[in-house]
C-alpha cells in the first residue's frame, strides 16, 4: 500500500510562497499543495510597479505573467502546476496541534479548515505609515500591492494631478519620484533623516541628490511629516515638522515596511529580535513542520553574523526555493544569509550597493579604510560613462566589507562583482588581481572595481594618504591652513573649477614650480584632478621632494557634491 500524498499548505502568494510551492511540485508530482493568497493576484512582479506607473510599459498583465506570457492566475496554477491557489482568501489561524489552517474567503465570509503536514508562512510585510493627523484623506497612497500600482497608474493616466509629495527618501521613494516625474507631476521627496538613501554614505548620497534636483524633482531632508492637510476629505497639502506646508493633490508614503508576523505570533512561533519570524538555515521556524520566508522573516548577515531583515523580492525567491526543496527532501537545502545587495534606477543614474557603508561599518566597531574612486566604465573612445564608487575594507585583514557605486555608467556588474567578493570573504588583494572580462566595449583594461581595490591597497600600504571631499569642504569652511593644488590642465580649469582657494599647477609643470609650494614641509597640501589619478601621481612627486603631509582628494572634481565656482 502506498502512503498518502504529502499535504503542503503555503500562506502567501507574492514571491516566496509561489516559489516554494512550484519547487515542491517539481520535486514531488503527487504532493497535495494549497496556496492561500489574500490579494486577488498571484506571483506579482512588485519591483516592476514603478515602471508600470511611469508608463515604461502599459500592459498590466506583464506584472503577473510567466516569461512565456501566460498570466499566473488560479487556473494557471491548477493546470500547469497542479497547485490549488485560493485567492481573495485570508489565513486567519494556525492550529499546530491539529495541523490545520483556518482560512476565510473574503467575499463570502465562508471559513474552511485546510490540513497540512508541512506549512509555509510567506505573509510578507505591511507598509509603515506616519502616525500623524490626516492619514484618512483621499489622495494618500502607498506602493506595496498591485492594487496600489493600479491606483497610481490611473492617477497618471487621468493627468489631473499636478503636484505630489513622496514621503521617504529610500529606494522605493525615488523610484516613485521618477515614475511621477515621467507623468509630468511636480514631485518633492521628504526625508526625515539628514541624507537620502540612508544605505549610502553621505558624500555619495549628496551626489545622487544633486542629480535628482538637476532632473527637476525637489528633495527636503532633515524634516518629517507633521500632518496631512485636506479640504472636503481630499488631500491638499503636507505639513512638515518645521511648519512648512507643501501644496499637493497626491502623497505617496514609502517609509519602510513592518513584517506581518501576527499569524505566526498567534500560533506561538518564535519571533526574532529584529521583529521578524525566527528561522534556521533550512528556513524552518521554531516548529519543525513550519517554514517561513520573505519579508516576514529575519535572516543572517554574511558579513557580521548578526540577524537582519532583508525585504527584497530576489531574497524572497531564493528563500522560497530552499523551502520548496526542504518540504520534499528535508534538510537538503540551506539559505546562508545576505550581503544586502541592492540597485535602483534614478533618472539616468544607477545607484547600487552591497555590504556595509563606511558609516555602518564604523558603527558596528570595524576598523576600516575606504577608497572613493571616479572614472569611466569603458574607454572614452567607446563613449564611456561616469562611475563614482566608495569601497570599504577591514584595515587589519584587507577583507572587503562594502561597496557603493553610482552614475550613468554600468553600475550593475561592478556591484555584482563585489557582492560575490564579499560572499567569498575576499580581500582587496584578491580583487586587485581579479581576472575579469576585458574588451573596450565592456570595460577598461583595469576595471573600476580593480582600480578601487588598488587605491585601497595603496592607502593601506601608506603609499597614498587620502582625504574625502567632505573633509576638504570642512577644511575650507573652517579656514584651515592648507595649500590646495588643482593638477588639471588650464583648459579643464577654465571649463570647470571648484573655487575653494586652489592653485592651478598642472601635473606636467609641477616639478618646475616646486618653489611655489609651502616652504614648511609639514604643512598640509591637498591635491586633486578630475578623478585624482594625476592628484595621486603628483602627491608621489611632492613626497619624493620632502613634503610630508600630502593628501589626495579622493574621487577628484567628479566626486565634489558641493557648489562650484564654475
From TrEMBL:
Residues 478-566 form the Rhodanese domain. Pfam families: Pyr_redox_2, Pyr_redox_dim, Rhodanese. The keyword Oxidoreductase applies. CDD domains: RHOD (cd00158). Its cofactor is FAD. Keywords: FAD, Flavoprotein, Oxidoreductase, Redox-active center. Coiled coil: none annotated. GO terms for molecular function: oxidoreductase activity. InterPro entries: FAD-bd_OxRdtase, FAD/NAD-bd_sf, FAD/NAD-binding_dom, FAD/NAD-linked_Rdtase_dimer_sf, Pyr_nucl-diS_OxRdtase_dimer, Rhodanese-like_dom, Rhodanese-like_dom_sf. The keyword Transferase does not apply. Belongs to the class-III pyridine nucleotide-disulfide oxidoreductase family. This is NADPH-dependent 2,4-dienoyl-CoA reductase, sulfur reductase. It comes from Allochromatium warmingii (Chromatium warmingii).
